Amino acid sequence: MDIEEKLQNNNGILQYENEIILQLYHEDGLLILAKGLGLERIFCEIMKLYCAEHNLVFILGCSDVEQTYFIEQLINDGIDPPPRIITADISINDRKELYIQGGLFFVTARILTVDLLTDRIPIDLITGLLIYRAHRITDSSSESFIIRLYRHKNKIGFIKGFSDSALDFTRGYNQLECVMKNLFLRHVYLYPRFHITIRSTFENCSPDVIELQVPLTLLMTDIQVSIIELINACLQELRSSTTWIDNDILNIDQAILNSFERLIHLQLQPIWNQVSIRTKQLLNDIKTLRLFIFYLTQYDCVTFYNAVQAVFINEKLYGSRGKNIHSSQGSTGSWLYLPAADRLLMTSKCRVFGESAKKQIQQTKENDEPLKLEENPKLKLVSDVLQEIRDNEDNKLLGPPITLIVCAEDRACSQLKQYLLLGGRVMLERLLEQTLNASTTNETTKESETKKTTEKKGKKTRTTTETKEEESNENSNIDNKPEIEGIEGGYVIEDDDGSTSPSTTILYPFSGNIDNHFVLGKILLKYRPRFVILYDASLTFVRQLEVFKATNPQHPLRIYFLLYGKSIEEQRYLLSVKKEKEAFESLVREKASMVIPEEREGRDEYNPLLSRDVTPANQQAYGTGAASTIDQTDTRRGGLFPMTTISNIHPKVIVDIREFRSELPSLLWKRGIDIEPVTLEVGDYILTPEICIERKSVSDLIGSLNNGRLYQQALQMTRFYKRPMLLIEFDQKQAFHLANKQRYNSSEFSSHDLTSKLALLTMHFPKLRVLWCPSPYASAELFEDLKRDREEPDTKSAMLVTAESELLDDDERYNTVVQDLLIRMPGVTFKNYKLIMNNVENLRALSQLNENELTTIMGNSKQASLLYNFIHKQKDDLVLDIKSKTTLNNTWKKRR
Amino acid sequence: GAVPSSSSSSSLLVHSRQRGNPLLKHIRQVKWEYSDMILGGADYSMSRSSCALYLSLRYHQLNPNYIYDRLKSNKLPYQLKILLVQCDLTEPSQSLKELARLSIIYDLTLVVSWNDEESAKYLETYKIIEGKSAENLMDLQQYQSTDYLTKFIDMITQVKSINKTDAQTLLHGFGSLDKILNSSNEQLCVCPGLGQLKAQRLYQSFNQPFKRQK
């Protein structure tokens, strides 16, 4: 059957989808579709076209959830055989057999690379590659490597790329061109929401939308104003403290956008190590404040107050700022000491404790005035809307209503559920009890708390009526469980007590997980809600609703759009719409001016990407600008390694299979070096019979220095190879010693820690050469250099080298994440951590041991005491410890 | 003045040609003194078996022959020969590659630092740990003079996606590590900023057995 006919027979396909599928089928290309317009639906249809045993198609870039979804979908549509998922659990021989049988395969990039390199796949027989999430392709990604390997030997098969993230293509220089180049594609199909076919598809079947605006409460507005003022203050300081950032980014309109941090990061990344501590601190402050804006509408008053208070207390008492005061850096700008900050804290407190909290700075426990516990206005609005839905006339005709409520975050969903079940007051009181009181009235609750934990099921000691209520709630939750099958992470409220008309309400968050929108799509299809409440707005989901409506034109769908009037939330949503539109507009322009070489598709020999030649590393990575020093050095030092060109035979490097997650193997291949993937027990790369290299990225390095693994690896390498080497691959753009900064911004600790550990390692292994490379490109070049005129490595003998069993066992025997936590506790050392892990069940159990028991296990009372104190140190003691610091703060405060 | 090197082996020895090197300002944890009697004429001598040569990449770019001349003229009779390279170029790729080659030929251990403090820290550390056993590689905590909060943050942020702010709110909300370790998933969830996912990850790390079950 012809493809056009096939598609016509399928009624569910929308007009624009039809157009896209036909285009993509007939001509290889990259599809960029607007968010939410059903990329997964189109992908499914494309897969259907190739589901046949005589085809051999590999699908890259799908998440687990997507894979299962696609397979389910195809099975439902009667496709046989459905695509299969290739995992490392399938043995090499079974894999080979499956490939020869043919069909569609979901496969990870790592497995596919190795199988291509080792000729387990008949490359010339591959029908084609489908690449999902194509925006993630870069010069160095493993997908690019796969495509190169494929095109190198297969000139006929197809390549099709899919993406719904237009914004990703406008980041960086020539991103679109770059992705297309790596995909060997000449065509790009752009389908923004304003595309004519898409507009006409949706024209006649838009859902019924009701926009409900509710003002923020006075206190919330106050808080918002304070936060904006604080952000402004930080921005102002930033403008005066740095010239690195464009001033037009440093304004409040930009600062409230989601993209703000990314923009700043883009500008600062190349010079991150030159950025002053103060600038970094300010950026960090803005980040926190931006978070507060989000929290304000997302969280209830109690949680919000907690978050604000935590930052205040932590920063004032023992935050990094405390340190900076006596350091030479002299951080003068700190928003915490501005009047607006006081207002922020006070107003947040007012929302919980009422006006009186404003007057007395120290909150007394015996407070006669009832708590204020201000509810977020949207909550009330949701319950009103739900009431309206229940009272809807149509219910008699169409049956009990099903409502879907979407929030940004899971917490909002669970709170909304509690709100609907318990009412706002009870919900907030409970929260207050769980958080604030627990930490302020330590002494009284301590005993009961410890009792609770020892009891197996720590039932809360409350009044009996409340516990009953809670139990009934818990029961109803359990009853609901089967309902939410397939929508993990959501909540369902069944309302069927006879008195009012029955209804079902589903709550689901749209962020938190990359698959959330995907799951929302599934929920729409499965439950077919007649009403959707957008507690928070998501561009993607709004579009998903449009598609849902368009594919089900008869289905009545009403959307309630809840917004806080004049809030930042509203601006953010509108801006996200605008951003995507602008991204597409710029892509359209880029497409129009793009010059695509004839040989792009690599179907003949001329595509430069397929040539395996040697260009200097800095030219490959950073364009041609930086090549000035090369000739000079190469000719001058040329005498050390005389240059000879070896024709015919490619040099070879043996690479550990686990290394295929990194980009280095592909870059080596590109330089004309053959790659032999094997499982190595010692080292990552074997360059010559003598040279064995262990490669560490900075984060790996930190981890393996901390848990002692690198020490073992160095030991093994020195034992079996004459020239053991440690390759440290750092990011050129982020100085090595700051590599930790993503995790916690101003910790000097980790860098010093790392320095000393590295020093110890090198001291202990004077024969271990350390290679420092700013990029994998540089590493590849260095490897080639090291191999020059030396003997080729022998795979068999490399595989024969086996690490001592103890080392391997360790990895297998213990859970590494927990081990990393444990090893970082004071008192825990390389000598005693195994004793602990062998004799204690887990971290929780560790915390329940007393000092004597710890001493028995660890065999050292001093270390046991260190550990015990670390675990049992109370925050209040901590405050005493650092009182001196606080007084310093105060005098400084007066000085301002 | 020049003190005979034998009598002052407890100090870090600095060759007088290093006078004016800004990194010296940052050496605080160990005693150091100028000496022109350093064995082999190295820039620094940390112990009888270890020495260091100092090279700024920017200087190297201007005087590419300097380091080769040094290495050719000085025989360094040490077990551990550090080439301490300060990376003060924006485009270090080529120089580092060249120095890697050099370090292989001359049996040098290449150590790269990015600023004076860091360079000083390396020298200090080599001096402090001189003669320490390999096992101490893991016991370095005794050299860390950091406060409780930093240690706490350093530990808890090992859990995936937990950041510094989360660490602070956790400590603030629960009061002690002990309580955090003993809390339920739901209790962790209540902490602002901790979504279900983060709470679950924390809970799992606290309650997952150390030993993997087979």
From TrEMBL, chain A:
It is found in: Nucleus. GO terms for cellular component: nucleotide-excision repair factor 1 complex. It comes from Rotaria sordida. InterPro entries: ERCC4_domain, Restrct_endonuc-II-like, RuvA_2-like, XPF_nuclease. Residues 652-732 form the ERCC4 domain. Belongs to the XPF family. Transmembrane segments: none annotated. This is DNA repair endonuclease XPF. Its main location: nucleus.
